[in-house]
Amino acid sequence: MAMNDMILTPMRQDLTRHGVRELRTAEEVDELLSNSKGTVAIAVNSVCGCSSSRMRPAFTGALQNENVPDVVATVFAGQDHEATARAREYFTGYPSSSPSIAILKDGRLVYMMERRDIEGRTPDAISTDIKAAFDKFCAE
Q: H or E segment at 86?
């Protein structure tokens, strides 16, 4: 295993072991989002400490909520460049931000949690905000 893989694999698995679908190419992003019906949450993962200590635990914790998106996915900023760039094209009106969490409903962005909403906050506080977004946008 290459050194890069030794470092990145656990960061990827922090999400994928909880059923989060990893999107590694622009085509995979388009396949999921271009004609999607229902709700999709995408976590923009990264190697930064803010992702490790805050976003990833908050996102996976929020997935224990009663209301959750139909599909949960992730792109890895700084690693899967094309997939991340393509996902960000769907996040209209927002600058690039890592980490971040987007919710799309029927292919339209309805919620965005940017890095500034994650930095300096506890995973529990972040998870509470994500759960509230899930309740608002993903409830039947």
A: helix 81-90
